[in-house]
Amino acid sequence: MGGLSRREFLARSAALAAAAGLAPELLAPELALPAFDRRGTVTTLDQTILHGAVVQGRYRSLTTGPGEPYVVRFDVLRAAADPARAQRRRSLLYLGHLSDLHVIDAQSPGRIEPMIVQDHSAWASAFHPQDPLSPHTTAAMVSAFSDARYSPLTGVPMGAAVVTGDSADMHSMLELRWYIDLLDGLAIDPATGGREFQGVQAWPEAVWAYRPGDPAGGDFGDYGFPRLPTLLADVIAAEVHSPGLPSPWYAVYGNHDVLLLGTFGLTPSLRSLAVGSQKSYSMATTSLAALNGYAASGSALQQVLDSVRLALGGPGMRPVAANPERRLFEQREFMSEHFRTETSPGPVGHGFTQHNLDSGETWWSADLSPFVRALGLDTCNAVAGPDGAVPDSQFQWLRAELERATQEKKLVLVLSHHNSLTLENAAVRPGHDEVLHHAEEVVDLLLQHPVAIAWLNGHTHLNQILAHTSSTGGFWEITTASCIDFPQQQQVVEIVDNRDGTLSLFTTVLDHASPAVPGTSGASIDLAARARELAANDWAENPSMRRGSPLDRNTELLLRAPFDLAAITDAALEAQRMTERTRILVHESRNAG
Fold first, then answer.
1. How high is the pLDDT of residue 308?
2. Which residue of 47, 85, 250, 485 pairs with 351 in a disulfide if CB–CB is 3.0 to 4.6 A?
3. Would you tell me which CATH number, out of the four given (3.60.21.10, 2.170.270.10, 3.40.50.620, 3.40.640.10), belongs to the domain 47-562?
4. What are the beta bridge partners of residue 374?
C-alpha cells in the first residue's frame, strides 16, 4: 500500500501549518523526516534505577543498573510468532499511560496524616515522607513523557496520553487544579500557606512523622532517614514548572477523586477542616475532628458546633494559614474542572463531554486516532471503600460501545482506575438496587469482543500485566505503577500491526526525569529525585515488589488482530503521523521559548 502522493502531502502540510500557526516552508521538511530519525529517548530500555548501598541504619541510596530489553509474551496469542515481523511492522498508535499521580498539598488541614499512628502498614496511603514533594515528582514525570514524545521503538510521535485516576490525592480543589495545570504545562505555586512550611513534618510534636529538619526520636529517625534541614523550605521556595504532556490527554476517575483517602465519604466536618486554620498532629484530635461527622446521631446543630470547634482549635492542633482553594470538590466538579484547560495539548474536557456535565454520567468514549478508540470507565464506588465495581447502567453502555466498535472496526482500549484484582466492591446505599458488576463479568464481556485489545488501569501502585484468554483469543490487562510510591514509574504503550494477522502491544516503563542520586541544589529536579529515594525506603511495604517482574515491565504482548488491518491504509497512517508530528512541533516550540 502506498502512502500520500506528493500533492496530498503538500496540501496536508499547508493545512496543518495554517491550523498550528507554523510556517509551511518549515513544517513540510520536518514532516518528511523518516520516523526512525527521531528515536533515541533514554528509557528503562537503556537504564534502570535500583536500590543501592546502605547509607545509615537501614536507609539505602539508589543507583543505576543496566537497561531491560523487551520480553516477548505469547500468553494471549498462544502460537509462535513470525521472527520476520520486526521488518514488516507499522505503528498504529503510540501513547502515554499515567496513573495514581497522587498530587498532594501536604500543608492542608484536610490531610489527616495522624491516622497512621495506629498502624503505618494499614494507613500508608495517609502519609509518606515524600508527600510534600509530590508536585515536583509529577512535574518530573510529565517531563519524562515530554522527553519520550517519540517512540523508542519506531520513532513515531506520541498520539495521545491517558490518566487512569487518583490524580487529586485528598479530594482538594487545589490538588485537582495542580494536576491539570502540570499536565497542561503551567506552573504551580506549592506555598499554599505562605513562605514558611506549615505541616506535621515541620512540627516537633509529630514524632511519628518523618521530620527532615530533625528525624531523631521517631521511627523514621530510628530507620536511618537522613537529616535534611532545608528540604521543607526548598519544597515551597519556588514555583514548580512543567513542560506539559506532548499530546492530547484523557482522564478517568480514581477512588481518591471520589472519596476522602479514596475510602470515606465527605462530611461537613471534613469540609470545614480542609479550608480552616487549624491542623491536627495527633491521632485523638484527628479522630474527633475528622471522623465525628460520620456519627449517625450528628444533627445539623452538632455539625455547626463541630465547625466552630475546628475553627477555635485546641490540644493536638496548631494554627495554619487558611486557604479557600483547599475546599473539597464535588464529584461533578472533577469533570467540570477538566474543561478549564489549555487548548494545546487539549482536548477541552479530556474525554468528558457536555453530555457528561448535563447528565452526570462519568464515563465516556473518544477516538484517540482514526483507528483506536478509548472507552473511559468510572469504576469507583462512591458509597465507601477503596475498591471498585461497574454499575449496570455503565456495564450496558460498555456492551453497546464494544458492539459499535466492532461494527466500525475500531481497536478498543478500555480505561479504568481499578483492575481485575480490585473490582469486587459490593457497597450500596439503602434503597438503591442497581446491580453492580465485578471483575469476572467485566473480563467476560471484553473477551466476547475481540476489538478490545487492552485494558489499561492502575490503583495497586505496581507494574503488572495479566493475560485474559478465551478459546478464540483474548486481551491484555496492563497496570502501571504510581507517582507516589517507589519506583515512581509510568509507561508508554505502542500498538503495532505486524502485517501477518497479529498485533503487538509494546510496553515501556518510564522513570521520571530526575537523576538516580538526588543533588543538594533544592531545584525541582533534585526534589523529585529525593522523593524517589525516600519512597524507596518505605519499610511498611516491599518497594522493590512494586517494580513488577520482567514480564510486567518492558514487554511485547502479542495477540490476534480482531479484523483485517489491511483496511488501515499506509496513506491514512501517514496522514495521522503528520497531525501527531505537528502537535509535537507546537509542544517543542512552546517549551523552547
1. 47
2. 250
3. 3.60.21.10
4. 366, 413
